[in-house]
Amino acid sequence: MTERKKFAPPAIQEFAPKLAEVTDTVLFGDIWERPGLSPRDRSLVTVTALAALYRTDQLGFHLGKALENGVTEDELVEAITHLAFYAGWPNAMSAMTQLKAIVDKAEQSG
């Protein structure tokens, strides 16, 4: 049997194994795999929700995942800019700062 990819951080896997299990099997193994939205669209929805709710701990991971899932840097910049007027300027500025750091890091590593 093929082992599923683990999304929960290793520290959470050790400290809260049930939370890690449902993160890996329910959230990413079921919800993210449903056919109603593409992974790209799910990423865009997730990033905007996390930015709007100021959930910065998870936002960085999901910004990277959005880029992996085909959301472009320009689309993320535009979505976050648009969000500023609905979810608040500080939320958008924090999200944009995280996105810039991710893009800068990717450019430096090639």
UniProtKB/TrEMBL annotation:
It comes from the Bacteria. InterPro entries: 4CMD/NDH-1_regulator, AhpD-like, CMD-like. Pfam families: CMD. Gene3D superfamilies: AhpD-like. Residues 17-100 form the Carboxymuconolactone decarboxylase-like domain. This is 4-carboxymuconolactone decarboxylase.
